[in-house]
User: Which sequence fits this backbone?
């Protein structure tokens, strides 16, 4: 199972040093989202961690960032975001109607682009909004099937032996917990 690298280091390593190193070798996806979409971000993050056995960086578990937000410290917030992106390999931007009003999502996309991280965007279900220009430069995921295809493409080769089963189960499961989040 993947981990959320935003969690306190002592919390995220529960096992041997070998297990910890194996987790650090897993791809890590930074999840960028508007605060109002937090529940969707958590669901998608859980799917990536639990179903695909990949690491994520989801800031709801970043105690340092949460403290900076509470103290309204923009310098510490910015540093935490940059640290999270630096510890990740990919950046997933969750797009909704709310995203257009975000100040931080465009910053995260810009910083990720500058840091040469691979970016992709995920459109939440039933969103018919115009895409902001800063997101027109990245590949898009619209459905559970295309999300699975993207995740399969970044899965390390030593973990690919199970990917066919994961995708088939994921797509065929009519009660999949992301059906209410992504278009079919």
Assistant:
């Amino acid at each position: 199972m993947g981990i959320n690298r935003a969690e306190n280091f002592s919390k995220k390593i529960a096992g041997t040093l070998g297990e910890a190193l194996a987790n650090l070798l897993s791809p890590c996806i930074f999840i960028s989202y508007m605060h109002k979409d937090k529940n969707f971000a958590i669901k998608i993050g859980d799917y990536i961690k639990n179903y695909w056995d990949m690491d994520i960086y989801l800031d709801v578990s970043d105690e340092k960032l949460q403290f900076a937000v509470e103290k309204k410290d923009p310098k510490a917030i910015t540093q935490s975001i940059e640290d999270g992106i630096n510890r990740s390999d990919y950046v997933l931007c969750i797009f909704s109607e709310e995203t257009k009003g975000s100040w931080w999502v465009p910053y995260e996309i810009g910083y990720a682009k500058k840091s040469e991280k691979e970016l992709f965007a995920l459109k939440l279900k039933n969103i018919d909004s115009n895409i902001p220009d800063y997101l027109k430069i990245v590949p898009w995921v619209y459905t559970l099937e295309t999300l699975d295809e993207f995740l399969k493409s970044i899965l390390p080769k030593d973990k690919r032996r199970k990917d066919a089963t994961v995708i088939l189960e994921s797509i065929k499961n009519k009660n999949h917990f992301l059906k209410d989040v992504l278009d079919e």
User: Anything to note?
Assistant: Strands lie at 28-32, 55-57, 90-95, 118-123, 140-141. The helical segments are 9-12, 17-25, 38-52, 63-70, 74-86, 104-114, 144-154, 163-172.
